[in-house]
Amino acid sequence: MNITVHGTLSELEGKEVAVGREAPSARITKLDGSKNVIGMIAPNTQLIISIPSLKTEVCSLGAKKFNELVKQFKKLDTIMVTTDDIEFVKEYVKNENINSAELVIDADLNFAKKYGLLIKEGKLKNRLARAVYLIDREGFVAYKELVGEIVDEVDYGACMEAVHKILSEEKKGHTHENWMSV
């Protein structure tokens, strides 16, 4: 997979995650320093937002916009993942009043590699590509957007439409067990 960084082609490392497939579990670091796992099966639908760096205008605006957009959803866990340093992110959360989404750190690049988002070269080497994944409660990717140019924003409208749709659907149980009834 490739994206462009200010018009220059940049290769991404890791496995591509496709809609309709199981979301991989990935280790992240919470702002209190504890480790956690995101992706896979979970009690709530997960919206995982990959942010290259909150130190840039586009990323900072995107984080604030998502924080506002997801306030209305009670059964949605919104996780924004970045590779910025933990002290900067703690300060950012406090200063920008990020309270509807959880900001976490991809300290060991586990998320980046498992989701195919690790920028391999250039001035953004070892940063995340900009992307959004919506993972249903059964652990399947229901929506995905990988932004083709790093300085562009995600399609907030399409993302929120996917969130509305999945949260309004009634799920019928985990599909892995369905083969047993055949």
Structure summarized in a few sentences:
With 182 residues, this protein is α+β, with helices and mostly antiparallel strands. The chain is built from four helices and ten strands, in the order βββββαβαβαβββα.
Give a written overview of the molecule.
The structure is a single chain. It is built from four helices and ten strands, in the order βββββαβαβαβββα. It is of the alpha+beta class. It has a single domain, classed as 3-Layer(aba) Sandwich (Glutaredoxin), CATH 3.40.30. Strands 7-6-5-9-10 form a five-stranded mixed beta sheet. A three-stranded antiparallel beta sheet has the order 1-2-8, with no helix packed on it. A two-stranded antiparallel sheet has the order 3-4. Strand 5, helix 1 and strand 6 form a beta-alpha-beta unit. The radius of gyration is 16 Å and the shape is globular.
